[in-house]
Here is the input.
Amino acid sequence: MKKISESAVRRLSLYLRLLQEADAAGAETISSGQLAERGGTTSAQVRKDLSLFGSFGKRGLGYSVHELLGRIRDILGLQRHWRVALIGAGKLGSALFSYRDFEARGFEIKAVFDRDPEKVGTALGGLTVRADEEMDRALREEAVEIAIVAVPGEAAQHVVDRVVKAGVGAVLNFAPVRLKVPRGVTLRNVDVTLELEGLSFALNSR
Ligand SMILES: NC(=O)c1ccc[n+]([C@@H]2O[C@H](COP(=O)([O-])OP(=O)(O)OC[C@H]3O[C@@H](n4cnc5c(N)ncnc54)[C@H](O)[C@@H]3O)[C@@H](O)[C@H]2O)c1
Here is the structure.
């Protein structure tokens, strides 16, 4: 597959949401204009994004919702379920765990780890929080593919090093630190403060 920019992948996710809604509403076709509006972009950009993956749609008729939905799911790797571990069952970790939409979208949390003895052994949803000493072995046993890191900043790099060593190929990090991962491992950082600063900028430039 051709190399695709991170922003194009994000737009695909946004197109996917709209396609799912259109499908649920019984729509058969969708225009590049509708997709553009949802993706915060132009029709030309939509056509460019989709042309990266082959030819879809017919001029004047729009895209087949069903076909495009299947194709975008394929491209994003969403035709299967991913095995996820959560590390850090604190305030944020527990909130993330209780968000059921992840599972509905194909991301199944298979294990939760924490190092606080008060939390280890307690139930979180249908799982039991496991001790962080068990993590290295358990990540392999559970064949975890994605790790969500919700530990304090000072613990995050060590946690990520262990996760990577256990064969996990992708990390979603919430800790407010810059982490290093080896080539071949994908790291995404989530920072709500960054988004708030974006809002601050928008308000400030009014
Ligand atoms: N990205 C964002 O926008 C955002 C928002 C809120 C919090 N955060 C960050 O998320 C992280 C968690 O925040 P919180 O409010 O849930 O904190 P918290 O203190 O409630 O939870 C952290 C948990 O990590 C556990 N932990 C610590 N070291 C560990 C280790 N080595 N292995 C396993 N577990 C370990 C602790 O026992 C605790 O249960 C922090 O780094 C915080 O700065 C980020």
